[in-house]
Amino acid sequence: MKDMKRSTFLKLAIASAVAVPTLSACGGSKSSSSGGAAKAEDAEGPVRVWFMQDSISEEAQEYLKKTFAEKNSGKELTIEIQQWDGIQSKLQTALASDDECPDVVETGNTQSAAYLAVGAFADLSDKYESLGGDKLIPSFVKAGEYEGGKYALPLYAGARGVFYRKDLFKKAGLAEPKTIDDFHDTIIKLTKANPDKVKGFSGIYLAAADIHGVESYLFAAGGDYATESDGKWTAQVSSEASLAALKQIQDIFKNGTTFANDSQTGQKNFQQNFNNGQVGILIGTGNVGTKIDQKLWDADKVGVMALPSKTAGKVGATFAGGSNISVAAKAQHPNGAASVLDIIFSDEFQKLIAKNGFTPGNLDYAGEVSGAFGKISQDVIAASKLTPNTANWANFISDSTLKNFYTKIANGSDVAKEAKQFDDQLNKTLNQKES
Fold this sequence. Notes:
The strands form four sheets. The protein has a six-stranded mixed sheet with strand order 2-1-3-12-6-13. A three-stranded antiparallel sheet has the order 10-7-11. It has a two-stranded antiparallel ribbon with strand order 4-5. It has helices spanning about 5-10, 60-70, 85-95, 115, 140-145, 165-170, 180-195, 210-220, 240-255, 265-270, 270-275, 295-300, 335-345, 345-355, 375-385, 390-395, 400-410, 415-430, and strands at about 45-50, 75-80, 105-110, 145, 150, 155-160, 160-165, 225-230, 230-235, 280-285, 300-305, 320-325, 360. By secondary structure, the protein is α+β, with helices and mostly antiparallel strands. It has 18 helices and 13 strands. It is globular.
């Protein structure tokens, strides 16, 4: 067990230090390093689970509640859906509360690191093997580790692939691209061809607001934000590979899409532009396929492929968006929380995650992902990567920080200059020491 680091807690606006119980303490008493006793029994009231908006389907939620009731006679489970906007401040308050803390919590995988070092989650190491062990998405497991413990496990992954209009490719005389350079050229050619003569047609939907789509292109082309060695982070945005990728991205913003400065709201519904023929290519997660008009699928007008790399035949790295699942350190119902995790990582629930279009936390079920994306999901996840796995990234490099950087690229700023400035910021931020 580990004590909370008060200085970090203050940064997160969490008022007091708490001791972190391990999940093995759910069955009996176990003392914390600060002298307090871990909860041995569940308190009265319902077990509370926080899921994020659009993460878990209603069907899967109903299965969780039904199965929990069957396995825990007399206990009640409530599921509370949270909005992504403002979730970090809401979590910071809730996880520190003795009365309002939820029991089981979903966090975005880039957010998880912010809560590990401050002891906000219980150690799940004793449950790791029974919940899937090495079958769980490795990069997500690593993102949930801290000082040898496992505090957050993979709920689902949303690594990016490519959806494209096969009919438009055929009319334009274009083949499926084999490398990322081919992909860039194909986007530009498709935009110029505009096979159906649609006003304002774009070869691809790419917007600065779609940070995970843009950075997936960056990663696939060999670029990166930063690398770590012996505890020191070194920014890579101005590296040769990153600069080459960013210049291609800037060219696409200028010559391959009309959506470079689309709003966040527009980005969240970008599949509409694909459905109505306004764009020919999307970079998106597996669940995007469930939002593409069925008539397009039925007419065999949609193709699915992995984002290519610099090398033909090799899958490019994409951002592994998605979520982890944790038990709160202040959970009032540790036994109930353990039961929830058992159900979440059961065969049926993992399949329900896949049915919703996401890659389940257990890669044995990646092939269950619905639709054509299921054929590439395992390869895409295996090649995927995360943003720098450090609390400093989670706390200080926000979505708006990245959006502002990509917006400057989209609006024609000098790529090398912007990359150098961003590198300077990253080197300072990622290597910042806790006071």
